[in-house]
Amino acid sequence: MPALLPPLYQGHAPIMLHQAFHDALEAYEEWRLDAPEPCVEVEGRSVAISAVFGRMRSCTDLIPVRTLDALHDIVGKAARELGEEQVTYAHAALLLRALCVERLKG
What we know:
Strands 1-2 form a two-stranded antiparallel ribbon. It has helices at about 15-30, 50-55, 65-75, 90-105; strands at about 40, 45-50. Helix 1 (about 15-30) packs across helix 2, helix 1 packs parallel to helix 4 and helix 2 runs antiparallel to helix 4. The mean pLDDT is about 90. Helices cover about 50% and strands about 10% of the residues.
């Protein structure tokens, strides 16, 4: 069975994963407490947001300002762990994946 998400190449993600990350971030924001984990569409496949965050946990690409701003708005105080400069997708993905895991336990 082929992987749902493409692999990173030497720490870099294809642009489709950057977009999937942003879509997953927006889906996380809309995730109601009583709802199952949301999914996003990646190349015609439905992928759980935690899987997107998991794939990006070693991505060394810098996160764009629009995505970083959305991240700060969504996770609030938890975003302080990210710092202010040179935030990578890996930094954000580790935080968001942990938040998903915690929420799925609940």
